[in-house]
Amino acid sequence: NAGVTQTPKFQVLKTGQSMTLQCAQDMNHNSMYWYRQDPGMGLRLIYYSASEGTTDKGEVPNGYNVSRLNKREFSLRLESAAPSQTSVYFCASSGFGRGAATGELFFGEGSRLTVL
Amino acid sequence: AQSVAQPEDQVNVAEGNPLTVKCTYSVSGNPYLFWYVQYPNRGLQFLLKYITGDNLVKGSYGFEAEFNKSQTSFHLKKPSALVSDSALYFCAVRDGGSQGNLIFGKGTKLSVKP
């Protein structure tokens, strides 16, 4: 039972490089999310997708793009990485929107990104 | 706007003693409240949630939380702490405007000493 799977787990980039974080869930959830976690700041929402084909900005979307490839997959792209994007990134999914308005989020194990 | 506050950066407890991790919230409408735990280098794991009903909610690993509407609090509790409970704990509230998004507190590090 994989749940939410993120790749890669670790990545080091140079300023200006691009990369994509991949996320897939096998729980047939409608909603998917990307958060970043920084020390002392909790988790902050970058983007979310309420359903296949829709995406919306969260609290800190600048410098990121997302794609909801299908119901299972939700990718996060950094087009031109900056040191301020050094963080731990978490993908999550939820059954919200399928009669489960109070559904909790299920998280992946995280992707640790360092931008030099 | 919905928000949660965790007033303590760190809580230290001796093994076997009761523990409390505090959380207060600010919401418009009915609060949907959650607690998550994060062990080092891992993702967040769901512990429990309050949606409606009994003010005392029981969750995983022997944890429970008490919803107090008058004090706008949702404190996490456990009667007898274990060393293995040492982790980072997050309180969260559902964002009424977004599609199921949660707004997280800054987290409280729980340290349980033998």
Report on the structure:
The complex is a heterodimer of chains A (116) and B (114). With 116 residues, chain A is mainly beta. Helices cover 0% and strands 49% of the residues of chain A. Chain A contains no helices and eleven strands. Chain A has strands spanning 4-7, 10-13, 19-25, 31-37, 43-49, 56-57, 64-68, 74-78, 87-94, 105-107, 111-115. In chain A, the strands form two sheets. In chain A, strands 2, 4, 5, 6, 9, 10 and 11 form a seven-stranded mixed sheet that branches. In chain A, strands 1-3-8-7 form a four-stranded antiparallel sheet, with no helix packed on it. In chain A, a hairpin with a 6-residue loop joins β5 and β6 (56-57). Chain A is globular, with a radius of gyration of 13 Å. Chain B is mainly beta and 114 residues long. Helix content of chain B is 0%, strand content 51%. In chain B, the strands form three sheets. In chain B, strands 2, 5, 6, 10, 11 and 12 form a six-stranded mixed sheet that branches. In chain B, strands 3-9-8-7 form a four-stranded antiparallel sheet, with no helix packed on it. In chain B, strands 1-4 form a two-stranded antiparallel ribbon. Chain B is globular and about 45 Å long. Chain A binds chain B through residues 4, 31, 33, 40-45, 48, 50, 56, 58, 90, 92, 94, 96-97, 101-110, and chain B through 9, 32, 34, 36, 41-46, 49, 51, 90, 94, 98-107.
